[in-house]
Each structure stands twice: as C-alpha cells, then as structure tokens.
Specification:
Length: 323
C-alpha cells in the first residue's frame, strides 16, 4: 500500500496495523496464549497458599495465623518469579513478532514463513534490555505521581484550599497524560530495537524523535485502539453477564456455566491480542514511513474511452425537421 505526500496518516496506519494482524493470525494466537498462561502462573502462588492454609485450618485453627505470616514472603517471591517469566516470554515474542509486523506493513503482504525464531533469537537481547528500561521508566513515573498524590492527602485534610486541590488535579492530569506518552515511547522503543536493529540507546533516541515528530498520529492510533478495546470489553461483559444471569442463585447451573465463561474469556483474549498486535503494526507503519520505506503512490492512468463511443460522440446530431 502506498500513500500520498510521503507522510502516513493515522487512519491509514491503523488500517495497515489491523491488516498486518489479520494476515498473521498466529501472532495473535501466541500472544493470547502467553497472556493467559502468564496470568495463570501469577495466580498459582496465592492459590497454593490458600489451599495450604485451608488444609492446616482443618487440623489446627490456631496454627493458621503463624503459617499465613510465614507464607507471606514465599508467595510474594512466587508472584515476582511468575511476573519475571511472563515478562521474558513477552519480550521473546515481540523480538520475533515486531519485525514480521513491520515487514508486513512495508511490503503490504505476509512475510515469508519460518523467520520468527530466527528473528527472535537475534533481537531478544536488545528487546529485553529496551523493554526492561522502558517499563521501569513507566513504573518509576507512576510511583512518583502516586507518591505526590498521597503526600497531598494529609495536607488537603488538615488545611484544605483551592490552590492545593488545583495542584492535586494538575498532578493527576500530568500522571494520565504522562502515562499515555510513556506507553507510546515504550512501544516505539521496543519497535526500534526489534524491527530496525538499533542498539538500546539509539533506539531510545530515535523513538523519542519519532514520538515528537508524529505525536498527533501516535495519539490518534492510541485512542483508536482504546476505542476498539472498549467495544470488545463491552461485548465480553455482555456475553458474560448473559451467562451469569441464566445461572444466578442455582449452584448446579453456576457450575455448568464455568465452561461457557472460560470459552468467552479465551475468545475475547484472542480479540484483545489481535488488537494489541494491530496497534504495534500501526506504530510500525508510522516508523517505516518515517524511514521512507512507504513510498508515494503511483497514480493509475486514466481509462481510455472506447473507440466506438468516441466515434459516436463525434458524429453530428441531425435536427428533426419542424412541422
């Protein structure tokens, strides 16, 4: 697909991203599978702790509280290990998926098969470091904004004033806008490191330059996919609510409704993964356009007029004689 002016518009980038995600459905499938398995692994440590405490409580109720205090750090360690495993698997996935999505957006066709693991092995180190730095920066920003808001709460209770509330509202707005911008920067950082082979520092510089140059298009892409995710979440809640309403206050029906709920959850997890891959594809299209990889269109030549019609149009029209 080629576009006029050499500058890709946001709606065209969204279309290219969704097209790339649709042409490579296995990427959405693996992304959904990674998300579900990561969530399940993160839930295992507290679930096992609850089962252990339930078993102890059946024998000795007084021994439950010391056991719960002793399980606090192992559970937190298990959750941290699960999050680390999920993050590593996610970076490995993006190291192989982002070059394929960027190539699809550039060539306007599906890339050749069999390159995912080769690309993932070559770019995993760069993507892992860039992803850790990007998400660490976003986490520090969120913690700083939360600390500022929590520090303002005692002052607002002790000495409320319009200026203090205005400052708190300004900090909240800054946190919201800053989180959106940092999320865009993190995605472009990963994209530059994975798809374009830049080093971590070079990828950060080029991602920041692209974000400042195409800030409007990046925000439009973010809002477009946020709107699509809201539609998908609304549909998922509607289906889940319909299943729950049919089994309300009936234990046997509630047990049978577990399978349809799981099916709805898996189906919409695939939809969310498809939207996530499409968002990265749209940003990849913007990055490829900034590098001049998406060229201007070739205007199709005008269709020739058939010879018979041209001859007929050139014939003189005889006027009917007046009576």
């Amino acid at each position: 697909m080629r576009y006029t002016g050499g500058v890709l518009r946001a709606n065209q980038a969204v279309r290219l991203g969704l097209r790339a995600a649709s042409r490579n459905p296995e990427l959405s499938f693996w992304k959904a599978l990674l998300d579900q398995v990561g969530s399940l692994i993160a839930l295992l440590p507290p679930l096992l702790a609850v089962l252990l405490l339930a078993g102890i409580g059946q024998e000795d109720l007084l021994a439950t509280l010391p056991a719960a205090a002793g399980l606090q750090w192992p559970v937190l360690g298990g959750i941290a290990a699960a999050l680390a495993i999920g993050f590593t698997a996610g970076m490995l996935f993006w190291a192989g998926a982002l070059p394929l999505i960027a190539a699809d957006a550039e060539m306007d066709r599906r890339p050749p098969d069999g390159n995912f693991w080769l690309l993932a092995s070559r770019g995993f180190a760069r993507v892992f470091v860039a992803g850790g730095a990007a998400y660490g920066l976003a986490l520090l920003f969120s913690l700083a904004c939360a600390a500022a808001l929590f520090a303002a709460l005692p002052a607002a209770v002790a000495n409320p004033s319009p200026l203090l509330f205005a400052g708190a509202a300004l900090v909240a707005a800054f946190a919201l806008v800053g989180s959106v911008l940092l999320d865009l920067l993190a995605r472009l950082w990963l994209l530059r490191a994975a798809a374009f082979g830049d080093s971590v520092s070079a990828a950060f510089g080029k991602a920041a330059s692209l974000l400042s140059a195409r800030l409007g298009a990046g925000l439009v892409v973010t809002l477009a996919f946020l709107f699509l995710e809201v539609i998908a979440a609304t549909a998922a809640a509607m289906f889940t609510g319909f299943i729950s309403s049919t089994s309300l206050f009936e234990p046997s029906a509630e047990l049978l409704a577990g399978a349809p709920r799981a099916a709805v959850g898996l189906a919409f997890a695939a939809v969310y993964a498809w939207l996530e891959v499409g968002r990265m594809g749209a940003l990849a299209a913007l990055a490829a356009d900034a590098e001049g990889l998406i060229a201007e269109p070739q205007e199709p030549p005008p269709s020739p007029v058939p010879l018979a019609e041209a001859v007929i149009e050139a014939l003189p029209v005889e006027e009917e004689p007046q009576r």
